[in-house]
Write a structure and sequence with these properties.
The protein is of the alpha/beta class and 401 residues long. It has helices at residues 39-43, 45-53, 78-88, 101-109, 125-128, 132-139, 174-185, 203-213, 226-233, 248-257, 303-314, 335-346, 356-364, 379-385, 391-400, and strands at 18-22, 57-61, 92-94, 115-117, 144-147, 169-172, 194-198, 219-222, 264-266, 271-274, 284-286, 297-301, 318-322, 350-354, 373-374. The two termini are 20 Å apart. Bound molecules: adenosine-5'-diphosphate and magnesium ion (MG). Adenosine-5'-diphosphate binds at residues 199-201, 205, 224-225, 242, 298-299, 322-324, 326-327, 329, 355-358, 378.
Length: 401
């Protein structure tokens, strides 16, 4: 498999040009509407600072949440404009609309080195519907379109896909390029000592990734709730643990292939179980020769499993990690995930982290800086790792033809 290689902002002249950047400012908000994690805004600076230094006229755009075509005030990008302005140390003009006369006026008046941010693209239903009309309005007066929204590239939306038909030039931003390069390493000629760690809630999310990596990885270490679907598929009792019965046949197939010329799938040997997902609940260590009690669910990998997985990790030359191996948000069930995070951080391996919650977990463990790459895309990174073409990248490549 060859990694996609779209042209970037470095390959086109941008001085004095009107450049529309599709960012991923889909930031987490608390109930009061405050931004709780700046990662995605900080990650946008690489491209934006380059464009501004080159003297481009920069128009930023993004979606935030799922307003479904309705103007939900809680999902305005105004707070993002404020943060971006602080980080760039210059004014970020904010009009409060996505397209139309008001926007066009500010767009026209924009001087080289000036920057504006459009309102939440999903306030318009046409964005998600991938409509020509909306894409045309976004493209008005634009010389160069830059896709830097890796986290949204798995969506064929107007600002990601259709827009590329109506602009003279369409290129990748530096963040998108970095994501493609980092995640491609996990698929293309990885070293023999390649270990994949998969956890999280749903098997359904991750089966396509497991399938695509079976022929590439040496070990696939499974944790999180998805481990219980695999264990139950093998006939092991898992109490009240979350399982997805419809995936039993697929799990059995994968387990049959395990180790036979493909990756060896490892499942947890012991567990931390409890009756409820609550902070101060009594927990039960479920040993190797026991099964999870009928009234309990598995909420973390046990100590033996964490040790075994850590040993395997310590011998790796490349590690891909997607999905925490337990309910790491609650300290009682975070032990396994924290130990895995430390083990990954201690290796000299190339370490690639995919998924929003896994990024939060390495942050909680205090080892985020030690990772080679922490992806900003959740769903997009899963689809990429499953080997699916991402519409946003495909659109850039077909514009080049
Ligand atoms: P990512 O965002 O990194 O892709 P996921 O969204 O797939 O990860 O999964 C993260 C979630 O999985 C976390 O909220 C965590 O609490 C949950 N989780 C992990 N292990 C279990 C478990 N055994 N039972 C229930 N939830 C779990
Ligand atoms: Mg998640």
């Amino acid at each position: 498999m060859n990694s996609p290689n779209p042209r970037t902002v470095y390959d086109v002249p941008v001085r004095g040009k009107r450049v529309l950047v599709r960012n991923d400012f889909n930031v987490p908000l608390d109930t009061a509407g405050n931004i709780t994690d700046m990662t995605r805004i900080s990650a946008s600076l690489l491209t934006l600072e380059y464009l501004l230094a080159q003297g481009a006229r920069v128009i930023c755009s993004s979606h935030l949440g799922r307003p479904k075509g309705i103007l939900k005030p809680g999902l305005s990008l105004q707070p993002v404009a404020r943060q971006l302005s602080k980080l760039l140390n210059r004014e970020v003009k904010f009009v409060g609309e996505t397209v139309g006369k008001k926007v066009d006026k500010v767009k026209e008046a924009l001087e080289p080195g000036e920057i504006m941010l459009l309102e939440n693209l999903r306030y318009s239903a046409e964005e998600v519907e991938n409509r020509d009309g909306f894409a045309r309005k976004l493209a008005r007066d634009i010389d160069v379109y830059v896709n830097d929204a890796f986290g949204a590239c798995h969506r064929a939306h107007a600002s990601i896909d259709r827009i590329t038909r109506f602009v003279p030039q369409a290129v990748a931003g530096l963040l998108l390029k970095e994501e493609i390069e980092a995640l491609s390493q996990a698929l293309e000629n990885p070293p023999a000592e390649y270990v994949v760690i998969l956890g999280g809630v749903k098997v359904s999310d991750k089966i396509p990734v497991i399938r695509n990596l079976m022929s590439r990885a040496r070990d696939i270490l499974i944790g999180g709730a998805m481990a219980y679907t695999f264990l139950k598929a093998r006939g092991i009792e898992v109490g009240q643990s979350r399982v997805e019965e419809e995936f039993f046949p697929l799990c059995r197939d994968l387990l049959d292939q395990s180790g036979r010329g493909s990756a060896r799938i490892r499942l947890p040997l012991d567990h931390v179980a409890a009756q409820k997902i609550e902070p101060d609940i009594t927990v039960r260590q479920v040993g190797e020769d026991e099964t999870i009690p009928e009234n309990m669910m598995g909420l973390d990998i046990g100590i033996r499993t964490a040790d075994l997985y850590s040993q395997i990790i310590s011998r790796a030359k490349m590690i891909l990690w997607n999905g925490p191996v337990g309910v790491f948000e609650i300290d009682t069930f975070s032990g396994g995930t924290m130990e895995i995070a430390r083990a990954v951080a201690e290796t000299d391996a190339v370490t690639i982290i995919g998924g929003g919650d896994t990024a939060a977990a390495v942050q909680k463990a205090g080892v985020k800086q030690k990772m080679t790459h922490v992806s900003t895309g959740g769903g997009a990174s899963l689809e990429f790792l499953a080997g699916k073409p991402l519409p946003g990248i495909t659109a850039l490549l077909s514009q080049e033809d």
